[in-house]
From TrEMBL:
Keywords: Lyase, Porphyrin biosynthesis. It comes from Buchnera aphidicola (Aphis glycines). Residues 10-236 form the Tetrapyrrole biosynthesis uroporphyrinogen III synthase domain. This is Uroporphyrinogen-III synthase. GO terms for biological process: protoporphyrinogen IX biosynthetic process; uroporphyrinogen III biosynthetic process. GO terms for molecular function: uroporphyrinogen-III synthase activity. Pfam families: HEM4 (PF02602). Pathway: Porphyrin-containing compound metabolism; protoporphyrin-IX biosynthesis; coproporphyrinogen-III from 5-aminolevulinate: step 3/4. CDD domains: HemD.
Length: 243
């Protein structure tokens, strides 16, 4: 259930190696038009000391805006990414070393990395989606860091109805791959709306990071596999291991 295009890529790989798979992303994406979108706060990009990037999608939509307006990525800030995949994607557009946590692709690991540095007086920009990850923002604010939010994109939920749920059942789906809390919570809301879908709780569920594992457990899943990394290469290895 990871978003496009990474979701389709993983499904194609799984089908090629004989693990029957189907892709369904809960979201559609488009550029943000909020009051704190990049179009409203572009000047802040060029006064930042630290830039924190939460996803490849943040990179994509920031780069899309910069290209349309004949602007370049700022060279002054130190760049931090949520994980290796996002860092590699960002390196396509800017020739700078991108720092990222090595042990786990999660907000908690990113915070640990940030706290290792002397950044208490730095101007920090968080590039993210509308209503995206909140943990890093909340923790940095609580510890009185100087942060500013720039929203690069927005997501809209697709409609999930009983016919779609029945289609999932007819495909005999028994495993879910979920890479974000938004997906997990939206799926939980769907289950609440369609009470007859307890079968989803009998599915094996792959999630990224211990925090999502705890959320999945609280919602009701029992067979939970935790991956420390969200990239397809690592997801493929852990899926094959537990298949």
């Amino acid at each position: 259930m990871r978003p496009s295009p990474e979701g389709e890529k993983l499904v194609n790989i799984l089908n090629k190696i004989g693990i029957l798979s189907w892709h369904f992303s809960l979201f559609n994406f488009s550029p943000s038009s909020s009051l704190i979108s990049i179009s409203k706060k572009k000047h802040e990009l060029y006064t930042a000391d630290i830039m924190i990037i939460f996803s490849k999608r943040s990179v994509y939509y920031t780069n899309l805006y910069l290209n349309k307006n004949n602007l370049n990525w700022p060279l002054n800030p130190d760049y931090y990414a949520i994980g290796k995949g996002t860092a590699i994607f960002l390196e396509k557009y800017i020739e700078k070393k991108i720092l990222f946590p090595n042990d786990e692709e999660s907000s908690e690991a990113l915070l640990d990395l940030l706290y290792e540095k002397n950044i208490s007086k730095a101007k920090i920009i968080l590039l993210k989606g509308e209503n995206g990850r909140k943990l890093v923002e909340k923790k940095l604010l609580k510890n009185h860091f100087n942060i500013s939010i720039i929203e690069c994109y927005k997501k809209s939920f697709k409609t999930i109805d009983s016919l779609l749920i029945e289609k999932w059942r007819s495909y005999k789906i028994n495993t879910l791959i979920i890479t974000s809390g938004d997906i997990l919570n939206k799926l939980n809301d769907t289950i609440d709306c369609f009470n007859k879908n307890e079968w989803l709780f009998r599915c094996k569920i792959f999630v990224v990071g211990s925090r999502l594992g705890n959320i999945a457990r609280k919602i009701g899943w029992k067979d939970i596999v935790i991956s420390n990394y969200a990239n397809n290469e690592n997801l493929l290895k852990i899926i094959q291991k537990h298949n």
